[in-house]
Design goal:
The protein is of the alpha/beta class and 263 residues long. The chain has a single domain, classed as 3-Layer(aba) Sandwich (Rossmann fold), CATH 3.40.50.720. It has 8 helices and 9 strands.
């Protein structure tokens, strides 16, 4: 089985920071034809510049688009335009997501409607918007061409329960359900769909969560069975594998990536 990504046409959301940014670095370095989207224009521009500078000899290509994944028409315009330019869509990485301002401290009964709606809007409906735009370009055609691979970002919050985090937990469980439903439905069309469920990973979102919960990072580190935080680079490697032909028989999984926290 091939583990190569050279020439693969891939779209990625949440590409301006954290796991999304590191995944974009890796895919570009391996020759993918990539379009990354994020809601923050300046960070997105900086991401593209840093990626190109880091791998000047890459055979890959990278473009970017400012996209709010909650807006279905904007998502469709971005993906349709990119596919029209490149003729196909081999893979999609749906990482864009948000956490609640009150993560780790806000009781279920105190969740404001606006917080709930934002989290569901980005983490669930936003992902649905992306998949609805991606799948039509991945269907198996009459010549037998294989569809593609979709990788969604869930979380260990999507495979267990966490107190004072109901909105985020609910949204990430929904990602798992959406992923499994897609896998069952689209397998006959050659489309694979898997999710990653990261745990304690060094990212800006992860750091903000620890600060909001007033958790000492060193104390938390010691509670991880492997004794360390994961890195965005490590998650990116796993995403890349799920996109490539080396994982061709894998679909419908939610793969925990947490150093042993929830096993």
């Amino acid at each position: 089985m091939s583990h190569k990504l050279e020439g693969k046409v891939v779209v990625l959301t949440g590409g301006a920071s954290g796991i999304g940014l590191q995944t974009a670095h890796l895919l570009y370095s391996r020759g993918a034809i990539l379009s990354i989207a994020d809601i923050t224009e300046e960070a997105l521009k900086n991401a593209v510049l840093s990626i190109k500078a880091a791998f000047p000899s890459s055979t890959g290509k990278i473009t970017s688009a400012v996209v709010n994944v909650r807006e279905r028409a904007a998502v469709e315009d971005w993906i349709n335009s990119f596919v029209k330019e490149n003729g196909k869509l081999d893979g999609a990485v749906n990482i864009a997501g948000v956490a609640a301002p009150g993560i780790g401290v806000q009781a279920l009964e105190d969740i404001p409607d606006e917080d709930w709606d934002l989290i569901m809007g980005v983490n669930v409906r936003g992902m649905l918007n992306c998949m609805r735009a991606q799948i039509p370009h991945m269907r198996t055609f009459n010549d037998g061409a294989i569809g593609g691979s979709i990788v969604n970002a869930s979380s260990i919050a999507g495979v267990t329960g966490l107190a004072y985090n109901a909105a985020y937990v609910t949204s990430k469980h929904a990602v798992g359900g959406l992923t499994k439903a897609c896998a069952k439905e689209k397998a006959p069309q050659g489309i694979r769909c898997n999710a990653i469920a990261p745990g304690a990973i060094h990212t800006p979102m992860g750091q903000r969560g620890l600060e909001t919960m007033k958790v000492d990072s060193e104390v938390y580190r010691k509670s991880i069975p492997m004794g360390r935080f994961g890195t965005a680079d490590e998650v990116a490697e796993h995403v890349a594998w799920l996109l490539c032909d080396g994982s061709a028989y894998m679909t419908g999984t939610v793969q925990v990536f947490d150093g042993g926290i929830v096993c």
